[in-house]
């Protein structure tokens, strides 16, 4: 492979198997998985679905930990990702760990994670096993570094992005508990840290292969300038959606502008009475910040895709994508969030519902990009809930997602926001239903009237995930559930109609 730098570009450089790797000539959309299997001959990492769903290709990406990072592992930030949808140039300046690395971390023949899988019979056909091992290894390192042990439920949450057709998961969870009982084998992070410090670059990274380019600016100002210069270039964040365009639709992306190196876009901070979530913040970090302030959002956070997807993907990308079944926009709309857009030096804000014009169409101008989501931090009277309905409990796309926020003045509805994904061409608030509830007592009678309004609010489609009738009925049931969870209980009042009265089996599958 020719490793000579081309004008104004340099090779991709990252730490792998104990040394720095330099790569030139690989196409910018070549996946990490393709490079591992075909070039590096590290075939432990498997290709299953090739769309970030099954977890067979799970690897761990290491970066220098930021100051104050409480989840750091001895100076490194370690995160699982799906190698099949990560483009090779996004590894620049990072460390890549695969199942082949575990051998060097222990004096015995097997790492404790692998030994536990053997002892607990956690592998049958074995195809998915390397992906499970890497997810378990990430969990192992995080808990070893902080002298803690995960609960069985935490293990299940950490493994929600790894699918197995053989074992039924019980022996794999057994292995996750067993690995902490075996003689420890902590990774020596010093070589990786030393290499990553040498690879740090003050300026951006530009890479070219043939006619296509990959640009990774380091500052927000540089990104804004580059975006104005290249308005037709493909913006890339976590690649959890764009990667599928390449793998499944065989699309050529042309020039790529990668936002993953812009530290300012990754910030999540409180500014006055607002929570500002940078568009480059990972889904995991963004959902954690929301759930810390509204704990009722925790289940939707944990059910949003999988840890490898949440570690790579960004909330800004999920919002900008504009999918009508995206799970972030309904929650952000219920929280009355605004979206912040930037073009050059100009920054503008608008209510998130105004951003969406039609199916996959939005207000972005040429050369403009999403800079942040701004969430008001309201007083304690606001009650928030979110509900995800999908065929599979973990790691599945929503049939619909509902997010509700209500503020009561005594027993009277002062304000209410009801946002839905999967019910229209865009994520949308139910304006008529909100109007029917505002100013009314928060009672069963008011909810029944609101359900009538909600029944006529949307004309959903029937598709592979749910029928129109199913969606229409479930959103009414969810409004009923919301009332049951937030009403003021009168011990003398008659029992309310159960939320399960129409579709007990289907809604019970959602874990309630």
List keywords for this structure.
20 strands; DNA polymerase, domain 1; alpha+beta; five-stranded antiparallel β-sheet; five-stranded mixed β-sheet; 31% helix; 18 helices; 512 residues; Enolase-like, domain 1
Q: Would you spell out the secondary-structure blueprint of this structure?
A:
Layout: E1 12-16, E2 19-23, H1 32-39, E3 58-64, E4 76-82, E5 95-97, H2 112-119, H3 129-145, H4 152-158, H5 170-178, H6 190-199, E6 205-209, E7 212-216, H7 220-229, E8 234-236, H8 242-247, E9 256-258, E10 268-271, E11 274-278, H9 283-293, H10 298-303, H11 307-312, H12 315-321, H13 328-334, E12 338-343, E13 346-351, H14 352-355, E14 356-358, E15 361-362, E16 369-376, E17 382-389, E18 400-409, E19 412-421, E20 428-429, H15 431-437, H16 444-455, H17 468-486, H18 504-508
Parallel strand pairs: 1-5, 7-9, 8-9
Antiparallel strand pairs: 1-2, 3-4, 3-5, 6-7, 10-11, 11-16, 12-13, 12-16, 14-15, 17-18, 18-19, 19-20
Helix pairs in contact: 2-5, 15-16, 16-17
